[in-house]
Amino acid sequence: FGESSNATGVNGNQNDRSAVGTGAAYVFVRNGTNWVQQAYLKASNERLGLMLNFRRRKLEIIVNDMEKLSLRGVQRRSNLKQKRDCRALRARNDCNGNYSVCINNDPMELRKLLEGIEIKKLAGDPLQEIKGIAYHSKRVERGFLFAAIRGLEFDGHQFIEEAVERGAQAVLLEEERELPSRTTIFVQNSRQALAKAASNFFGNPSSKVKLVGITGTKGKTTTTYLLESIFKKAGYSVGVIGTINYRYGQKVTRASNTTPESLDLQRVLWEMVNEGISHIIMEVSSHGLDLDR
Length: 293
What we know:
By secondary structure, the chain is α/β, with parallel strands linked by helices.
């Protein structure tokens, strides 16, 4: 304690009160009574009261947030059940059990599918309905859009005739050529166009979740596991798209590539959204960036 100019000490007059402290707080000593201890206890009690009030308010906020999340979870589970029932019905009735094809969205008009794509030329009917998209000619079915993309080993333009024979109603390509009775969409970069078309077809699923992309030479997979653990501890439903596998909920799929092709990526994102995933962690390889995935 600092000294005070009018301090009389513990043996001063009973009516005298002398300040024994300096600054914002003052402690008085009178008639042998230890006011220092009393002031300390009072300050401690006030501090404890403030801490308890703060923690009580924080607890109330947490409880309210948990109640809101619980209500959302109930509604989300109800919606998911309806969507799963619809997908199962489509798989049994329309696709002969070929679930990998049936998980696509409902048919969409070609003009809506092409929104946001810079088109050089379109020949054919933009109002026809497209039932699915494929970039592999052997996966094409009737009513599909076939995207001819250039790979490291193969060029999809070499398989356009096969895709048409399998029922492709429209073809997305870079080379101008005549395709009788088929709609053709000529673009500058078919890979970029495929990515946008796939996002449109699946309802832009990445906009409905919190999406974290991780890129770098080393450490991407480790970082995904760390973030997945943190998000789960925070109470979020998490999906991961990585080098080892693609996983969410109870489903684990072996990964073919660190970063899937754009069409496959949008389908996986769409599946995760339909299963109620709120946060998705994704490894983004430099190879995937170069190939516009």
